[in-house]
From TrEMBL, chains A, B:
Residues 9-66 form the Thioredoxin-like fold domain. This is Thioredoxin family protein. InterPro entries: Thioredoxin-like_fold (IPR012336), Thioredoxin-like_sf (IPR036249).
Length: 78, 78
């Protein structure tokens, strides 16, 4: 079972991508944990450390998949 | 059962994203068709019509998820 984290910031692009991704994931293969970086700002350095540069992003093991472009991580810091 | 098309051009970013996406998809919910736009150049206008602007991209129904950035569709035309 793989672990994945879906990082987002609640923006329309994020919500759309989240719905599509969560709808297509096979729960027998991947467990997806969702993190709202607009609310859990303490998780921004963690996401940055994994290589996340913008949201929405899906991190599977240590592989970062940036999905469309909702917001840059830098913008979430201010 | 949803239908999805994974557009790519064989670039390293594309191959990585393809492996990750195909590994997490639930075959009971989504059937993924893969199109290599570097080889099937006749499909470039189709992808463009769906709103694809870069590859790799996953199109689910009429929703386009651009994943990371491998190449712009314009560059595949030349």
């Amino acid at each position: 079972m793989k672990n994945a984290t879906f990082y987002h910031a609640g923006c329309p692009v994020c919500v759309n991508a989240e719905e599509e991704i969560l709808n297509l994931v096979d729960p027998r293969k991947v467990r997806v944990h969702t993190v709202h970086l607009g609310q859990s700002t303490d998780q921004i350095p963690v996401a940055e450390g994994l290589g996340v540069q913008s949201v929405p992003a899906l991190v599977i093991d240590d592989n970062v998949l940036h999905i469309n472009f909702g917001a840059a991580l830098e913008d979430l810091k201010s």
